[in-house]
Write a structure and sequence with these properties.
This protein is α+β, with helices and mostly antiparallel strands. 47% of the residues lie in helices and 23% in strands. It has 2 domains: 125 residues, Jelly Rolls; 42 residues.
Length: 186
């Protein structure tokens, strides 16, 4: 079974015909480690689904310090949702931490597919709700948990991330220095 079909069918069941119709709206791309799929200042016209690899979504502050908002691994969706939805300039970067294979759908194709297929409208509505829940939990964790608690929660939720992502990126995601993160491991 195609991995995207398996992913979609966690929420809605599809016929072979429906899945082929859905898949016809996507394109496959491969990107190498350190290649960008989104850069600050561009208009984002694609939403990406990770078949293979790991990416990071981040911004640079006025001092050039990197602040990681999100990681995306297999079966995760990623884009600059503000730019993708409003077609205004992106405020973030997304680049590949590993070599990646991605499916993408254009804004136009997503709108078309959503309007033509109620199942996909329901799928993306549910995925959007899950994304808001995850974002809410991330904000709550940042506001109320100690650095050690944030670290342990991330380790518990995404243990494989620690084998795939350098410690400096974990620190940038948690909003702490690499030195503080090193002290947590001792």
């Amino acid at each position: 079974m195609h991995p995207l079909r398996k992913h979609i069918e966690e929420i809605v069941k599809l016929t072979d015909y429906e899945f082929e119709f859905i898949l016809s709206h996507f394109e496959t791309i491969k990107r190498r480690k350190h290649q960008f799929i989104v850069q600050e200042g561009e208009i984002v016209r694609k939403e990406f689904w990770v078949i293979k690899g790991c990416l990071k979504n981040y911004f640079l502050d006025e001092n050039g310090k990197e602040h990681i908002l999100q990681f995306a691994m297999e079966n995760w969706w990623i884009t600059d949702y503000e730019s993708f939805t409003t077609q205004k300039e992106s405020k973030i970067y997304i680049d590949c931490i590993e070599d990646c294979e991605l499916l993408y759908i254009s804004y136009e194709n997503r709108e078309k597919l959503t309007s033509e297929m109620h199942k996909m409208e329901r799928f993306w509505a549910k995925k959007s709700k899950y994304g808001r829940i995850a974002l809410q939990n991330r904000i709550l964790s940042l506001l109320k948990n100690s650095t050690k608690e944030k670290y342990n929660l991330l380790l518990e939720q995404y243990p494989t991330l620690f084998q795939r992502v350098p410690k400096k990126m974990i620190a940038a995601y948690l909003g702490v220095s690499r030195e503080t993160l090193s002290r947590l491991n001792n």
